[in-house]
Amino acid sequence: MILSFLLLLVLIAIAIYASSKKSTAIWKVPTTNFPQKWKSILSEKVAFYNALTEEEKELFEYKVHEFILNCDIIGVDTTVDITDKLLIGASAVIPIFNFPNWRYPNISEIILYPKMFNEDFETSGDDRRILGMVGTGYMEGKMILSKPALHLGFANDSDKKNTAIHEFVHLIDKLDGEIDGIPKVLLDKQYTIPWLDLMREKMNEIYEQESDINPYGGTNNAEFFSVASEYFFERPKLLAKKHPELYALLEKMFKQDMDDKNLYLKRIDISRNDPCPCNSGLKYKKCCMEE
Question: How many CA atoms lie within 13 A of 251 on its CB side?
Answer without folding.
Answer: 15
